């Protein structure tokens, strides 16, 4: 059997095994084996094939794997649902005080109350959402 075919089989086995581990180590080793296969197809001696395979795998492990893991894991800072509304701007549609009020937030109308119990926020004011408490937006009039 030709050397490049052996390298190709090794790469395929490693890539298949990666589907079980999902740690991005075996796929990088498969890339190194593929590089060894290219060296074999180019007619390099076995020692050079092994050196290319090891060097390719190390390069992939040290350079590509950390970047790939960062992309797969994400930053974790993506807020969704009501958490995404915290910090957003809203417009007061009905006077907001410490107990009651309404704001237009994210295209819909929300019940609201003032974060500062002494604030009374008039209709038309722009407010910032400090938190969401149940179905109520707790807002702050930063212009005061």
Explain this structure.
α1 packs antiparallel against α2 and α2 runs antiparallel to α3 (46-73). The chain has a 5-stranded mixed β-barrel. The protein is rod-shaped, with a radius of gyration of 29 Å. The longest helix has 28 residues, at 46-73. It folds into 2 domains: 3-73, no CATH class; 81-140, Nucleic acid-binding proteins (OB fold (Dihydrolipoamide Acetyltransferase, E2P)), CATH 2.40.50. It has helices at 3-21, 26-41, 46-73, and strands spanning 89-94, 102-105, 108-114, 126-133, 136-140. Helices cover 44% and strands 21% of the residues.
Mean pLDDT: 91
Instruction: Tell me the major beta sheet.
Output: 5 strands, mixed, barrel
- Taken together, the total number of domains comes to 2
Shape: rod-shaped
The residue ranges in which pLDDT falls below 50 over 5 or more consecutive positions are none
In N-to-C order, the SSE pattern is HHHEEEEE
Estimate the strand proportion. Answer: 15-25%
Helix content: 40-55%
The chain-level structural class is alpha+beta
Give the distance, in angstroms, between the N- and C-terminal Cα atoms.
81 Å
Neighbour order of strands in the largest sheet? 1-2-3-5-4
Oligomer: single chain
Count up the helices: 3
Whole-number radius of gyration? 29 Å
User: In total, how many beta strands?
Assistant: 5
């Amino acid at each position: 059997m030709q050397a490049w075919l052996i390298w190709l089989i090794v790469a395929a086995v490693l890539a298949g095994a990666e589907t079980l581990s999902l740690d991005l180590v075996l796929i990088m080793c498969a890339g190194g084996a593929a590089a060894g296969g290219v060296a074999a197809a180019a007619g390099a001696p076995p020692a050079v094939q092994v050196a290319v395979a090891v060097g390719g795998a190390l390069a992939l492990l040290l350079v590509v794997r950390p970047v790939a893991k960062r992309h797969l894991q994400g930053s974790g800072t993506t807020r969704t649902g009501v958490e995404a509304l915290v910090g957003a701007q809203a417009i007061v549609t009905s006077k907001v005080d410490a107990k009651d009020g309404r704001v237009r937030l994210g295209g819909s109308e929300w019940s609201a109350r003032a974060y500062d119990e002494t604030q009374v926020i008039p209709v038309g004011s722009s407010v910032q959402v400090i938190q969401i408490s149940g179905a109520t937006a707790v807002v702050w009039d930063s212009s005061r």
